[in-house]
Every structure is written in C-alpha cells, then in structure tokens.
Amino acid sequence: MIIENPITPLTEIFDPLFEKKHIKFFIKREDLTDSFISGNKFFKLKYNLIEAEKLGFKTLLTFGGAYSNHIHATASAGKKYGFKTIGVIRGEEHLPLNPTLSSAQENGMIIEYIDRKSYRNKYDERLIKTLKEKFGDFYLLPEGGTNEFAVKGCSEIIGKINIDFDYVCCPCGTGGTLAGLISGLNGNNFALGFAVLKGASFLKENVNSLLKNCSSDSSQKWNINLDYHFGGYAKMDSVLLDFVKRFTSLTKIPIEPIYTGKMLFGIYDLASKGYFKEGNVIIAIHTGGIQGLKGLSSRIKNY
Q1: How many CA atoms lie within 13 A of 196 on its CB side?
Q2: How far apart are CA 86 and CA 261, in angstroms?
Q3: What backbone torsions phi and psi does residue 194 show, to the nearest 5 degrees?
Q4: Which residue of 47, 142, 220, 278 has the lowest C-beta tally within 10 Å?
Q5: H-type alpha helices, the chain
Q6: Rounded Cα distance, 213 and 180, in Å
Q7: Model confidence pLDDT, tens digit, residues 142-155
C-alpha cells in the first residue's frame, strides 16, 4: 500500500496584532488533506494502515467517544483503503445517531457500545479477548490513533513546510501529533503544543514516552501550554466561540472550538502578551475536525 501525502497550502494570516508585534503568522491547512480523513488523522492513520496491510489484517478496531474525529476518520479510511472497521464507543447508544456516528456507519463501520467503567479499562486483555471472540481478529488502533506509527506519520508534516520558521504549534489531546512534529524538527525550531483538556500535565510524559519508543530526539526544543483548555475537553464558553466565529469570518478558514480553535486563541493571546519575539515566524497546524461542527451546532446556538 502506498499512501501519498497530499499538498496543502500554507496560508499567511494578516492581522493588526501580528503587524504590531512584527510577527509573521501562517496556518498549515492540513484540514484540506482529505475530504473525510482530514488533518492530523490522515498522518496518524497512514503508517498504521500500511502496517495493518503488511501484517495481513482485514479489520481495524478502535475506540472513541460519540463525537470522535478519530472514529470518523478511521471509518472513512477503512472504506477508502479496503478495511472493515469496528468502532468501540464509550457510553450508551443514543438514537438517532449523531452526525459523526451516522457518517461512520454509512462508511461501513460496525458500532459497538461499552459502558464507561469498562471503557476506562479498554485495553484490558479480557476485553480485547471478548472483542476478538465477537468480531474475529483485528488490527488494534488505540484511542485517538496515537502510537509509534502515528508519530512517524505526523513527523512528515514538518517536511511539508517550505519556509523557515521559529515556532510550529498544534493542539494536544493525546500528544501524538506534537511528538511527531518534534520528531520532524531540525535545528533551532520550537514545537509548542496547546492542551485541549484540563489537568493535562501527563501529556509531557506521554510525549517523552512516544519519542523514546520511536527513538526520536526528545532534546529538541518543545513545550506544552496548559492554560487554554477552557475548562476541559469539549468545554467552551462565549469568549472562545466569539473568537472562533470572528476568526472564521475574517480569514474564511473554518475552525472548530475543540482543538484548533483553542490553539489559535492561545497563540493570539500569547502574541498579545509578548511571548513571541519580534521577527518570529509562527506556523499553526490546522488539525481538521470540521466534521464535529455538525454535532456541536445545538450547543453553539446556546451561546
């Protein structure tokens, strides 16, 4: 199997804030990698799919929440590259299916629900054995798709950036994308992650572990900012939503408030506070996830 990396634009964002601070700011439009397998999910899945085929697996099984970008992308990738897919979903079944699970099912994914207590121990050998007895053998993709193959794929994002830069930024849920960016760094670049969940100090340990497993250089310059989670995963308020709407309106670049929106809010806020130096070039990775906006529409209307 050969999966070619698509060419996506690097778009400069012109804003009075960056002009005032004498900073250049770009967005790498990885949301345009694929209509359905977009953003960092394309790169996380790339080498996992190649490995699954190499090992002779015909089925992919993975875990996620009911609105998971990873579930959506895995189902789409399975359909595109000829794998059966199973999504083990946290919590109870709710009908009708939300847009994420509906799309996954339309792409051939079998949806399997497990209670939240069991989900916390989703990699328990007994649960995996039960799933294999029910569905047969499968290639196990971790929740969020983060493993050494995901890091290898995400490292290639750096190679797609064709200008010199000082900072490359991404949102962080599991740390896989950031680990990949760090792995792909050369020279004096700095990788800056923005945690999208509360109490995410463990992410630094995750990233270090991923880099170690991939034999990557963890001494590269990087950090994770923990200040822009807005209360936790999938939490948001009117300040964040106003920023997302304003940014989309001014740039015509669609973003969502769960991942990319929080990262961009953090970059703007840090720039206003003088975190970046005059003359710095900053690149933000748009990690996709736009499919999730359909499921968020009712919540967003409440603000």
Answers
A1: 25
A2: 29
A3: -125, 110
A4: 278
A5: 16-21, 40-54, 69-81, 99-106, 116-120, 125-135, 148-159, 176-184, 202-213, 238-251, 260-272, 292-301
A6: 12
A7: 999 999 999 999 99
Per-residue buried b or exposed e for 201-238, using 16+ beta carbons within 10 Å of the residue's own CB: eebbebbeebbeebebeeebebebbbebbbeeebebee
Taking the CB of residue 161, how many other CB atoms lie within 10 A of it? Answer: 17
Query: For the residues of 49-102, what is the DSSP string, one character each?
Result: HHHHHHTT--EEEEEE-TT-HHHHHHHHHHHHHT-EEEEEEES---SSPPHHHH
In eight-state DSSP terms, residue 138 is -
Please, which residues have CB within 8 angstroms of residue 126's CB and are 6 or more apart in sequence?
none
Q: Give the tokens for residue 182.
A: 């760090």
Residues facing 88 on adjacent strands = 63, 112
The two tokens of residue 236 are 């948001």
> What is the Cβ-side half-sphere exposure of residue 208, based on CA atoms within 13 angstroms?
8
If you ran DSSP here, which 8-state letter would residue 30 be given? G
Q: What is the pLDDT of residues 180-231, one digit of tens each?
A: 999 999 878 999 999 999 999 999 999 999 999 888 776 779 999 999 999 9
In this predicted structure, what is the pLDDT of residue 303? 46
CB neighbours of residue 153 within 10 Å:
26
**Structural domains for the chain:** 10-36+151-301 (3.40.50.1100), 40-145 (3.40.50.1100)
Which letter, b or e, does each residue of 136-151 get, where b requires 16 or more Cβ atoms within 10 Å of its Cβ? eebbbbbbbbbbbbbb
**Which amino acid is located at 238 in the chain?**
S
Q: Which of 78, 44, 28 is nearest to 284 (CA)?
A: 28
